[in-house]
Specification:
By secondary structure, the chain is of the alpha/beta class. It contains 13 helices and 21 strands. Among the domains are: 190 residues, Phosphatidylinositol (PI) phosphodiesterase (TIM Barrel), CATH 3.20.20; 133 residues, C2 domain (Immunoglobulin-like). The strands form five sheets. The protein has a six-stranded mixed β-sheet. Strands 10-11-12-3-13 form a five-stranded mixed β-sheet. It is globular. Helix 2 crosses helix 3, helix 5 runs parallel beside helix 6 and helix 6 runs parallel beside helix 7. 21% of the residues lie in helices and 23% in strands.
């Protein structure tokens, strides 16, 4: 790269000087401090790792291994400035430890974990007219999702079972095809259990058919508890490589109440209009007085008649679900002798949280709470997952086939714990002596300092007119926190004009009251004076696993695919 020409009109062209990637001044200053005569030896590097990168246990052998692993770029005597900078900005220096696999205690009951959960996992697109397929199920499992939802309905001739979004124009897919795809892909990414949540709309004879399909497909992989009702959930470790069925105990099909299908006039939320997805809704300011006619999915009171269901099918249900009779107090009652799963829509949870926040947290210490998108999200958009997580909800169910900021935060949370799909809930949500109240603002526990040095890679991953037809791009970075309301904030750097390799060198501070639930959000955009700013990359990182020091941070597309070259050079510290 030296110069780049942009055509302005028929007669004129603009030429811009393209600078090569070089170390910003703070990196040059560090190199001067940890080198002699322009060479950083292994001894220097080891001291740099301990003091700057906060890797207190780093040894001389570790430093030598880094130099040997980057032998293609380093001088035989050690790093010079250029090779040191390439090491810092390289793939071997990420913000999350690449060698850190599953490290949380996996021997606690399932209720002690956040679980990577999908909603209507079979849909390829919107909630009303897209195709149903096993492909999005496979894609979700490959990304580490551990809870798959299937809506099961009789086919047109009432002699087989289809998976589809009922009372919509979605095209069905055979249940057996979905089950086989789950079996073949369940444990390729993670060995920890896969839960299949069934929304059952079947007659008794078709329930028997489903039971036969499930048992024949999964065989010994299927977890069937000895007792009809569990007194405590088993642990993820105990359930490794097991398939778990969860649904409401079956009801008499003919007496099943019809769901409301009234559609709300606005099918899209206002904040979903941006090309890369709307900003995550603020939990504090969210209005809950509207959308009374949501097309909800599990809002029925349990009035089932056990004698009308197939006994084999009933025995397959390992995690029983349902609200039971009564209101919110009854739903959240903790039974010392049995555990269960409760499902609430995002709207129901937001309303309940206003008056029953601590009770919800107490309920989730033993039982499982599943939260699902409200019915008017026809475009398969998502909600702020923190509303569920900060109340202890284990299964915050998301539409995985879309994209947007809420889904990016979800993906960031489950980068933790080796990406296994299970993240141990923080102690603050599990202690019994003083139940956590999400509405109470706590004292600041720590402050995260983030420095955004520079970025590169857009020149290689995008066409030279992708961002601006007449000049190089004008990039800025947004960085902030998704967390409890007191911690949630977004800040931004200045805009660097006409530069493919922007250098911001800006520092930000983020006081955190509940760092255990905080996710670091990073986005790059290209400023556009006349239109909406262009998307330039994003990532979300769990603060609980963020490595201190100077790190290379690769960025991802709107759909969550990693760019080949685009990345930021950043510094992280906790005080």
């Amino acid at each position: 790269m030296s110069k780049q020409t942009y055509k302005v009109c028929f007669c004129f062209r603009r030429r811009f000087r393209l600078t090569a990637t070089g170390a910003p001044p703070p990196i040059k200053a560090l190199f001067e401090r940890y080198s002699d005569n322009g060479i950083m030896t292994a001894d220097h590097l080891q001291r740099f790792l301990v003091v700057v990168q906060k890797q207190e246990k780093a040894t001389l052998e570790d430093a030598q291994a880094i130099m040997h692993s980057t032998a293609h770029i380093f001088h035989r005597k050690g790093f010079n400035l250029e090779t040191f900078f390439k090491y810092l900005f390289g793939d071997s220096n990420p913000a999350l430890d690449p060698d850190r696999s599953v490290h949380h205690d996996m021997n606690l009951p399932l209720s002690h974990y956040f679980i990577y959960t999908g909603h209507n996992s079979y849909l390829t697109g919107n909630q009303l007219s897209s195709d149903c397929s096993d492909v999005p199920i496979v894609q979700a499992l490959q990304k580490g999702v551990r809870v798959i939802e299937l809506d099961i309905w009789p086919n047109s001739t009432k002699d087989d079972v289809h998976v589809l979004h009922g009372r919509t124009l979605t095209t069905p897919v055979e249940l057996l095809k979905c089950l086989k795809s789950i079996k073949n892909n369940a444990f390729n990414t993670s060995e920890y259990p896969v839960v299949i949540t069934l929304e059952d709309h079947l007659t008794t004879d078709l329930q028997a058919k489903v039971a036969k399909m499930v048992t024949e497909t999964f065989g010994d992989m299927l977890f069937t508890p000895d007792a009809e009702v569990l007194g405590e959930f088993p642990s993820p470790e105990f359930l490794k490589r097991k398939i778990i069925i969860s649904t409401k105990p079956p009801k008499e099909y003919l007496k099943r109440k019809e769901s409301k299908t009234s559609e709300v006039g606005s099918q899209r939320e206002n904040d979903a209009s941006e090309a890369w997805g709307g900003e995550i809704p603020n939990i504090k300011s969210k209005s809950t007085a509207e959308f009374k006619d949501d097309l909800e999915e599990e809002d029925e009171i349990e009035d089932f008649q056990e004698d009308s269901c197939d006994p084999v099918y009933r025995n397959l249900i390992a995690i029983h679900a349902g609200k039971g009779k009564g209101g919110l107090d009854a739903w959240l009652r903790v039974d010392p002798d049995k555990v269960r799963r409760l499902s609430l829509s995002e709207q129901e949870l937001e309303n309940a949280a206003k008056t029953h926040g601590p009770q919800i947290v107490r309920f989730t210490q033993r039982n499982i709470l599943r939260v699902y998108p409200k019915g008017i999200r026809f475009d398969s958009s998502n909600y702020n997952p923190l509303i569920g997580w900060m109340h202890g909800a284990q299964m915050v169910a998301f539409n995985m086939q879309g994209y947007g900021r809420s889904l990016w935060v979800m993906q960031g949370m489950f980068k933790a714990n080796g990406g296994c799909g299970y993240v141990k809930k923080p102690y603050i949500l599990m202690k019994n002596d003083s139940i956590f109240d999400p509405r109470v603002i706590l004292p600041v526990k720590m402050t995260l300092k983030v420095t955004v040095y520079m970025g590169e890679g857009w020149y290689y991953d995008f066409s030279h007119t992708h961002f601006d037809a007449y000049s190089p791009p004008d990039f800025y970075t947004r960085v902030g926190i998704a967390g409890v309301p007191a911690d949630t904030i977004m800040k931004r750097t200045k805009t660097i004009e006409d530069n493919w390799i922007p250098a911001w060198n800006e520092e930000f501070e983020f006081p955190l009251t509940v760092p255990e639930l905080a996710i670091l959000r990073i986005e790059v955009h290209e400023y556009d004076m006349s239109e909406k700013d262009d998307f330039g990359g994003q990532t979300c990182l769990p603060i609980s696993e963020l490595r201190k020091g100077i790190r290379a941070v690769p960025l991802y597309s709107q759909k969550g695919d990693k760019y080949k070259s685009v990345k930021l050079l950043m510094h992280f510290d906790f005080v």
